[in-house]
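Board notes (copied after class):
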Amino acid sequence: MNCFGMCRKDDDEPLVMTYFPLAARGELPKMLAVLGGVKLTIADVGLGPHKEVGPALDPPLPATVPILKHGDMTIYESLGIETYICNLSPKFAALTPKQKAIDDMYSNIKEDIMQQIAVWLFAEDKSKVKEELTPKLKKMYAICEGLCPEKGFINGLSFPTKGDLAVLLMMKGFIPYGWAFKNTGWEAKDVCPKMARIAEAVAEFDGIREYLAKPGCTMFADPGL
């Protein structure tokens, strides 16, 4: 197990997320914990064995991860997990409803793109991945690029929030985004300068910089899919 974020002595209810040792849907919750000062422990699970985790719970959940446990609460669905971690964070407490909605939009965009890539990531026949996935990547990244500000972080604050971290994931997370760039030959950084700028600024922000520099950081993990 790995611990991310700040460890609080008064926190007697462990927050534990079960997920693969790669980026995808587990990476944004990890970075939110780091940046938001929330103690989060990661329980790694392998591809295949993960299908046994949810159904073994009471009440049973689907055979999918991430799964988050906090005291007597157990939830799945990554978007809900992201929101819960944000709600626990003192750093994100002052965000307005508007800022939270904007953050959620970017998080949903990364999910939309992830779903398009996943079709090919797990396909047995990948011979047409460049031909069929590239135009979808171009379209969806262009939408996100158009929404990004010319300068500063997405919500205009002195620190990044969920939307900025989602952009970082879409630009630098190997699974599934880097895998898609590698297998299509199309690179978002070449045509999305605003997203690239935000990603670089977030990657150098205190806490995130140290997180990304840790050996074995899951942001860059390549399981060889």
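Comment from the instructor: Residues 6-10 have pLDDT under 50 and may be disordered. The chain is about 50% helix and 10% strand.
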